Amino acid sequence: MTQRTVYQSMPRRLLVSLPPGASVHEAACVMTRGNCGSVLIVDTAGAMLGILTERDLMTRVVAKALDPATTSVAKVMTANPRCIGPD
Description:
Blueprint: H1 6-9, E1 17-18, H2 24-34, E2 38-42, E3 48-53, H3 54-62, H4 73-76, E4 78-79
Parallel strand pairs: 1-2
Antiparallel strand pairs: 2-3, 3-4
């Protein structure tokens, strides 16, 4: 059986994702439109680099008074989250 991550197993239309250079403001807007509490951060090849959650926004952006328009998601995301296989 071919090894795949859960991210690779899911249809892309169900995932909310952004590149690492996107702003925190963009991430918040995407999460709002998608009615979800997190966004996956992926590279151009589609590999998952990290995840940004509502809690990350609260504790790493708002609580530290960072500017959401100029702060990239790569600076505040949870990098290399642990993932499980589809089985």
